Amino acid sequence: MTNRERILAVLDRKSPDRLPWIARLDLWHHARVAEGNLPARFRGMGLVDVGRTLRTGNPARDGRVFTTRYEGLEVRTEKAPGVLRQHVTTPYGAVSFGRILSHTVSGTTDQGLPLEHPIHRLEDYRTLEYIAEHTYYDPCYEDYLAYERAVGDDGFPMVSCGDCPFHYFLLHLAGYNQAYFEMVDHPDEFEHLLTVMTQVEKERLWPVVADSPARLILHGVHFDSQMTPPRQFRRYITPYYQEFSALLHARGKSLAWHADDDRSWPR
User: What is the reported pTM?
Assistant: First the structure.
């Protein structure tokens, strides 16, 4: 069986000839290229060729089924050495997102590490609500189909659809250090923002994903019990996924999320 056939067998609840194991080498490859110490046998090779040489397959994480569009606001990107900032201006004010982009993190993340979060004052909640209300998702299904053809038998695309609203608030809007203080200090604003974000995704994102030709959907990243403990998970995350997964299952699709292992096992 090919890697593609093995993954599809698992999704169909059938038994493949062996467990499908596909190594994600992109962070390692990016780091080695950035630092100039890629092993000699791989020099000049792209990521896909390295995977074929090692017979580790293709994780195929770069497929997409939509593009994101904003209306009624101004988005300005500012790039400085090692830092990328995005400034968003709305009729209700402006907020900024910042990420660290440097060789020192090239081996730990491919999108940079959060540096600045947009929530600093009460008024920022209304600004972020406006951004959510004016965010749209346009299908680009042909892009996905072309990507799936390019991946071929080396793997099967898993399409990322961003993060769920609650964890997006924790990681990107308030930051892990501040998020739970915000939830306690400004509960009404937090709950209303979360409601707006969730409604927008249900009305605009979910249908585009459900109608897409993609079958394996990744939605939600870096969950761990330290920042998404069971009580909060049951309240803010479980109902969201129960509803979304039911929609996807009805269309023959599978939903996955990325969970981190935060346990310290006894030696």
Answer: 0.89
